[in-house]
Amino acid sequence: MGEYRIAVLPGDGIGKEVTKGAVEILKAIGDRFHHQFHFSYGLIGGEAIDQEGTPLPDQTLEMCKKSDAVLLGAVGGPKWDRNPPHLRPEKGLLQIRKEMNLFANLRPVKFYESLVDSSPLKPTVIQNVDFMIVRELTGGLYFGKPSERRVEQGEEAVVDTLFYKREEIKRIIEAAFMLAKRRKKKVTSVDKANVLESSRMWREVAEEVAKRFPDVELEHMLVDNAAMQLIRNPKQFDVIVTENMFGDILSDEASMLTGSLGMLPSASLSMTGPALYEPIHGSAPDLAGQNKANPIATILSAAMMLRFSFGMNEEADAIEKAVEQVLAAGYRTADVAQAGKRVVSTSEMVSEIKAAILDDAAIE
Ligand code: NAD
Ligand code: IPM
Ligand code: MN
Fold first, then answer.
1. Is-contact 105 72, C-beta < 8 A?
2. 292 appears as a binding residue in the annotation
3. How many helices (H) and strands (E) in the chain?
4. Ligand 2 environment, Cβ below 6 A
5. pLDDT tens readout for residues 36-84
6. Was domain 1-106+264-364 assigned CATH 3.40.718.10?
7. At residue 261, does pLDDT exceed 90?
8. Could you tell me which CATH number the domain at 130-256 has?
9. Which regions of the chain carry the CATH code 3.40.718.10?
10. pTM of the predicted protein model
11. ipTM over 0.95
12. DSSP 83-110
């Protein structure tokens, strides 16, 4: 029997509801496959600001570093939107990513046949879409210094900086190639090399890395074109690798190929310590506290945890299969609701997925 320590950071808004659901699913997996998952909870984001005066308390970070994996909900909300930069919930998320060196954020975009009518896009465009966005997560425009307001020649001014060390670009592009090698063997490196010097170095490094992966095709694509191609013909993609902010924007866009932002999970990986798993969506203040949010992105993030951090492929498969079964049976949270389907709450969706995991066990 394996024992695993999972740090859970629910955060704010629907973060609490969706992590509660994912923990229930992990417990069901523990029961079915005889693993002991030990959950410990920590504060992050707005709630941490309110209770501890900082968006990432030391205690939370220490707990996460000592765990085998971290599950995070989401942070942020209107209550803290006017706070100074160091007292914003989002700062806590950026800090934990940096402190744990989680430079590689994997965001899989996968089509579900039963949700074909939930997407605003045509079935012919989205059917069988299956690609991975590899988003650089600890550098780029989010972390470059300076990032500040200042006065220049008597005028109010502001600066953000897009900064990368060559080595930071290299490791994320290598991660993309390693993934592509095990998939459809194509890497699309997305940049703005027609304008940005950082993108020109990104391209150079991509070319260098590509030489070591002769069986993987490399293509370069400008980010504005990539945003369009994602809607025009998303099936052309296998692995997309890109800068932090480009990846943030393109992944929310790509989520609509699956029908909802509430469907996309992610894994944030480092080379050394524990990894962190989180849905790509935010705290959805418009849904918070109403038991309406789609918990599937977080549940699928838990499946990624089992697969990547614990090597539990069968267990991860069981979650993914249960999600597919429940969707195929017609259960929908409001974000993917369709005529003729049964609209359920967050907790009902979790119960259905849990039942599918445990029922399947009974059949075997
Ligand atoms: P959001 O992702 O919270 O919501 C965007 C839209 O998608 C909303 O209409 C919301 O209702 C819907 N949505 C999101 N998740 C859903 C789910 N699971 N089920 C059903 N519908 C869902 O983005 P936003 O509204 O731009 O930002 C709200 C707050 O969340 C901000 O404070 C922002 O900084 C924060 N945020 C946090 C994270 C994170 O913690 N990783 C990610 C994005 C945004
Ligand atoms: C995400 C979020 C975060 C990001 C914010 C809340 C800092 O949008 O995880 O995608 O931009 O990385
Ligand atoms: Mn985002």
1. no
2. yes
3. 12, 14
4. 76, 90, 93-94, 248, 280, 282
5. 999 999 999 999 999 999 999 999 999 999 999 999 999 999 999 999 9
6. yes
7. yes
8. 3.40.718.10
9. 1-106+264-364, 130-256
10. 0.98
11. yes
12. S-GGG-HHHHHHHHHHHTT--EEEEEEE
